Amino acid sequence: MRYYLMQSVEDKIEKVIKSKQRGTLFFTNDFMTYGSAKAIQKALERLTNKGGITRVTRGIFVRPEISKYVGEVLPTAEEVAQGIAKRDKIKIVPTGVSALNKLGLSTQVPLKLVYLTDGAPREIKIGNRIIKLKRTTPKNLLAKGKTSSLVIQALREIGQQGTKEELKHRIIKLLKKETRKNLEHDLPLAPVWIRKIMQEAL
After folding, report:
1. Distances 84 to 13, 19, 178 between C-alpha atoms, Å
2. pLDDT value at 25 more than 90
3. 4 has a pLDDT exceeding 50
4. Which of 61, 58, 36, 57 has its CA nearest to residue 47?
5. CA–CA separation, 99 vs 105, rounded Å?
């Protein structure tokens, strides 16, 4: 009887997973209505062993995309961070080297991705990379523009002294692609010296 119940939980979970697109992230909590925490954990272990899903990190799984060249394609650490934000209904904003990298201002791929958040602070290990969620004040999460939000965080990382003329020109060029409405909204949220650079884009 116990084995049947576990099989039933596994079948239900497998059905849900197969109904989703490859590349979709799944969290253990997604299946809480199907049985006890122990039964769900066992079912996910069995599905992982069967090859239907791959464990990304503790409590997070994926039905991986398959490439004919490299086989399984697992989600990036950035995609996992976005998945966690969506699940927990929290805001996250890339900071430091991550912000510079996303803007194309640095080729350095950080092993530690630091995000500002209004959620609980924590660290999640994904392979050899770490996602760090760092709690911050609401003001730091109010920016509406995707580019302007990244620019504010990237320039904070570089600092006023490190922001040379050539870099300013590249940033202004990026900011000009931002909608005027978003840029005007985000101006007051930036420190004064960053605000001056953003104003030049207007």
Report:
1. 20, 21, 26
2. yes
3. no
4. 61
5. 9
Taking residue 82's Cβ as centre, other Cβ atoms within 10 Å add up to 15
Closest CA to 186 of 142, 156, 154, 155: 142
pTM, two decimal places:
0.84
Could you give all domains of the chain from N- to C-terminal order, each with its CATH number? 2-67 (1.10.10.10), 76-137 (no CATH), 142-202 (no CATH)
Distance CA(192)–CA(150), nearest Å, equals: 16
Q: What are phi and psi of 89, to 5 degrees?
A: 55, 50
The highest-confidence range among 107-111, 131-135, 160-164, by mean pLDDT, is: 131-135
* Mean pLDDT estimate for the chain: 90
What's the CA gap between 54 and 23, in Å, rounded?
10
Tokens representing 201 are: 């884009």
The number of C-alpha atoms within 13 Å of 92 and in the hemisphere containing its C-beta is 26
